[in-house]
């Protein structure tokens, strides 16, 4: 993935009829995959509290999600996704307020930056693609991921990738339209798999994030 793309996404709770409904709407099943994600942070969760999410996916490499441009409020998120290790390391130094320690990949800076594994789980995913406007052959498809984690939590995600902040509202409009077609309530929010993992298995870390989040909100 090119660096700096803005990922506009909305999570929802899928039901037993979600895949059938996607088929009815003209969606196509791209693939079904199983993978393990390992998440890393400092003991104080300095990355997550700054809305940065560092992940190593099995056989796929590193990714750092960073806050996207502040835009339309609502039950969605906007992130930039960094996958080049040099860009990830540079962003980690900046977020953690650490001077550059020298060249190296992400694995090389885990120790010096006090980054440790805070979560690890396996996900079964089915990925669907769907174009809302069949008349527009140039319109990029929306991606719908339906995930079930190995600790029993299921969550869906509708995602659009855009290059500029100005494109976010149009992408969000399409996401919300598809959400409605899938029966998702207008303001419904579903926690990410990582948040549910922390709530169940690392409640102290979950509480730390909750306290920080509540302080940040007006």
Structure write-up:
- With 218 residues, this protein is of the alpha+beta class.
- It contains 7 helices and 8 strands.
- Strands 1-5-4-3-2-6-7-8 form an 8-stranded antiparallel β-barrel.
- Helix 6 (193-201) packs across helix 7.
- 22% of the residues are buried.
Describe the structure using short key phrases.
218 residues; 7 helices
SSE arrangement:
Blueprint: E1 6-12, H1 18-24, E2 28-41, H2 46-49, E3 53-57, E4 61-67, E5 77-82, H3 85-96, H4 106-109, E6 116-130, E7 142-149, E8 154-162, H5 168-181, H6 193-201, H7 203-216
Antiparallel strand pairs: 1-5, 1-8, 2-3, 2-6, 3-4, 4-5, 6-7, 7-8
Short description:
The chain has 218 residues and is α+β, with helices and mostly antiparallel strands.
Secondary-structure element series = EHEHEEEHHEEEHHH
Radius of gyration: 18 Å
Poorly predicted runs: none
User: What structural class should be given to the helix and strand makeup?
Assistant: alpha+beta
Q: What is the approximate shape? A: globular
Largest sheet, if any? 8 strands, antiparallel, barrel
- The CA-CA distance between the termini, in Å, is 35 Å
Instruction: Report the total helices.
Output: 7
Strand order of the largest sheet: 1-5-4-3-2-6-7-8
Query: Which strand-content bin applies to the residues?
Result: 25-35%
Number of strands: 8
- Mean pLDDT comes to 88
